[in-house]
Amino acid sequence: LQENAGSVGPVTPSAPTADLTPEENRVISTFQKASPAVAFIKTTAQAVQSQRGLSLGSPMEVPTGSGSGFLWDNRGHVITNYHVIMQSLQGGNSRKVMVKLPGMAEAREAEIVGYEAEKDLAVLKLRNVRNLPKPMDVGTSNDLLVGQSVLAIGNPYGLDDTLTTGVVSALGRDIQGIGGRPIQGCIQTDAAINPGNSGGPLLDSRGRLIGVNTMIFSPNGGAAGNVGIGFAIPVDTVRRVVNEIIRYGKVIRPTMGVSVANDRVKVSIEQQIGRKLE
To answer: Is 137 a catalytic residue?
Structure first.
């Protein structure tokens, strides 16, 4: 994909406005500082139109999903939710993951470095890393307090660069992950999180990453819409998982080194050592 050489670059926050409150100026400054590193992620697949079994032309790219993400480092790694890109893991080369950061003329293709379905996290890497913005500042989540201010930036319903604000509503929530096991210690927030926000950053008041937005509580199958209960994976978990995926391509799980021997193996061992195993 071709772009202008200077299409992406650092964004300088505007000066405080006297007509606004200090709190409003703080939120504006934080958004201007963090939003250049927030990405719109789209997955596509090639489809061939056919009629009565006959091809009607060249394959067309059709969207299969979308969500949010953010730039992790200067090497072009982008973090998002596993469920945002899981459709791209099927279908081979006919499926693509495209990433667009603010200021880019066009989306850039990214490869999937690895993922951890049980934590609903995935790491992408941009193929073209020219003129990237400053990566997201990474904070900590072990010192969060209920009531502190948070900001969520993402692309709900495809509306890119959307900011919502709220507070930390609760800590230590366990939510059912898409991998089938609970994600422990999640952050609950009342900042509006909607479809398309998945994979986007949850920030503290200084613009530091404290979590990755992953899902909302939506009763009645989503008919109620956003009810002010959203969840984010805590950044301490994100940092551990992401660093392992970047280094190894997957999450390394510890093992105990214990195995169970059947009766035949047990008899063989007893013969070798000359005594019964209890």
So the answer is: no
